[in-house]
Design a protein that fits this description.
Layout (H helix, E strand, L loop, with lengths): L1 E4 L5 H11 L5 E18 L4 E7 L3 E13 L2 E11 L5 E6 L4 E11 L7 E5 L4 E4 L1
Parallel strand pairs: 4-8
Antiparallel strand pairs: 1-7, 2-3, 2-4, 2-6, 2-7, 4-5, 5-6, 8-9
The site of zinc ion has 3 residues, from strand 5.
C-alpha cells in the first residue's frame, strides 16, 4: 500500500498505526518527504544504550528504510532514516518517536508467511532481534 501521511503527525507512530490497522505483521517500509523536527538514535555497542539526537529544524527525508515484524505480539516498525538539511548535509540514525511530519509519502509492502518474524531479547547485543 502507498499513501501520504498528514502534516503534524508523528512519523514512527503513524507508520506503526498504518501497519497495525492493515494487519501487516511482516513487511517493508519506505518513505520520502520532509519533517519539521526529528529524533534519531545511535546504538552504542559498548554501553548497550541508545544515545538520542534531537534535531530542531526542518529537514528532508532523503530515505527511510524499515521493516515490520512482531515484538511482544504487537506490530513493530523498525526504521532508519537519512535526513538532509538546507546545506545538503545528511543526518541519520534509528528513527524514534518525536519526529514530526511536514509531508511524507510512504510505501508499505507486505510479505506473507506462515511463520511471522518475532523480536526476542538477544543477550550478546542487548537488542531485540529476530529470533
Ligand atoms: Zn535501528
Amino acid at each position: 500500500m502507498m499513501g501520504r501521511l498528514p502534516k503534524g503527525c508523528d512519523l514512527l507512530d503513524e507508520l506503526t498505526r498504518i501497519c497495525r490497522d492493515n494487519q501487516v505483521t511482516l513487511g517493508e517500509v519506505r518513505a520520502i518527504g520532509a519533517v519539521e523536527r526529528a529524533k534519531i538514535g545511535y546504538y552504542d555497542m559498548q554501553s548497550r544504550r541508545y544515545s538520542w539526537l534531537e534535531l530542531e529544524q526542518e529537514l528532508e527525508i532523503l530515505s527511510l528504510a524499515g521493516n515490520v515484524s512482531l515484538k511482544d505480539g504487537e506490530v513493530f516498525v523498525h526504521a532508519h532514516i537519512t535526513l538532509g538539511d538546507d546545506k545538503g548535509r545528511a543526518h541519520g540514525g534509528h528513527l524514534a518517536e518525536g519526529t514530526t511530519v511536514f509531508a511524507c509519502e510512504y510505501l508499505v509492502r507486505e510479505y506473507l508467511s506462515d511463520t511471522p518474524l518475532r523480536r526476542l531479547w538477544d543477550e550478546p547485543t542487548g537488542l531485540y532481534l529476530w529470533g
